[in-house]
Amino acid sequence: MSTSLLKRRRHEIGNSNCHNRAQNLWDKVLGLISAYFYGIEQKPLPPVFSPASNPYAKGIYANGIVESYQTNGENINIFPEVAGVVKEIYVAEGQSVARGTPLLWIDDSVQRATVAQQQAQTEAALATLEELRAQPRKENLEVAKAQVDYAKANLVNLQSQLDKVAKSYQLNPNSVSKETLDNAVNAVKVARANLEVAQKQYELTKAGAWSYDIRNQEHQYRALVKANESSQALLDKYIIKAPADGIVLAIRIAVGSYVFSQGTYGTYTEGFDPVVVMGGSPNRLQVRCYIDEILVPRMTREPEITAKMFIRGTTIGVPLKFLRVQPYVTPKIQLSNERTERVDVRVLPVIFTFDNPRDMNIYPGQLVDVYLEEK
């Protein structure tokens, strides 16, 4: 290798080593800077609101949810008993309604046609029953009586001819043939039989419809009446009415929505919700709180339970009046509304009532903090 090539090679190696050392130094500097900034302790964010403090020397904390006042149960969840498309909604959210007030109307065109058809069948069955009860018809009875009279007249005529033939044969057997005499005798017998038939037909017509025919028609008519009443009752289900006096808390459907017995599909919950939720008087509310089963032995005995509710985000406390205990310990899934959630905690529902403060808006469904005084 020539001297010039050797010098060039050494120079390239030297430049490469310098570059590597510079890169390593820069990486160390970046590492130190990163470690410095990541090592700075971040100050915790302040809470959105200060949690309410325990107002009692010894108090039990519980989560609570506000509900409209009910003697039993929770809010009134309304589900339709029939399926169909909502045609019209008659009320608005927040509106006070009386029991029996129409809330919404579901398309009932098919059921209405069914009711009309069964009504026509019922009327036809009634007409047939009245026809049977009205028998005998005057015109039919007159025809039957005329047939009897005709048979009697015919018998008298034939009997007169027979008498003449028989008398002539008796005086002179050669005056009338034996065949003529026999034909006259047979003609009288036939006429007498026809008279008996005509008389029996007249009695049958005069008796009217057979009792068994009337009874069968009565059964058919009553069956159609019951079917028509059932269809009419089902038709009435297409107009959903308020089951009790109260206030409309939520309407989960719009005109054109499809509803069925499980309610309607919730756009946001992706589950099935009641079409309408109703509550009691807006001036009186109740709060349902859930006491952990471990804390239940520390509760004051009923009805001496004292409690206070705090509105989240405020320092406002509302005294509660004990209403009742739901004596059934259940899994704690109510507030989260997760029906498939598996939890080990079980809680005891305790319900209190309170008067809605005039200077504070409190609504059903609102979560609150509740403290119960220990015994």
Topology:
Elements: H1 3-38, E1 59-68, E2 76-78, E3 84-89, E4 96-97, E5 102-106, H2 109-134, H3 138-171, H4 178-207, H5 211-236, E6 239-241, E7 246-251, E8 258-259, E9 264-265, E10 272-273, E11 276-279, E12 284-292, E13 307-311, E14 317-325, E15 330-331, E16 346-355, E17 367-373
Helix pairs in contact: 2-5, 3-4
Main β-sheet description? 6 strands, antiparallel, barrel
Helix-strand topology string: HEEEEEHHHHEEEEEEEEEEEE
Kindly give the count of domains.
5
DSSP strand tally: 17
> Numbering strands along the chain, what is their spatial order in the largest sheet?
1-12-16-14-13-17
What is the class of the largest domain in the CATH system?
Answer: Mainly Beta
* Large-scale geometry: elongated
- Portion in helices: 40-55%
Beta-strand percentage range = 15-25%
Report the C-alpha radius of gyration, rounded. Answer: 49 Å
Structural class: alpha+beta
Q: What is the end-to-end distance? A: 102 Å
CATH fold call of the largest domain? Elongation Factor Tu (Ef-tu), domain 3
Give the helix tally. 5
The poorly predicted ranges are none
Mean pLDDT, as a whole number? 85
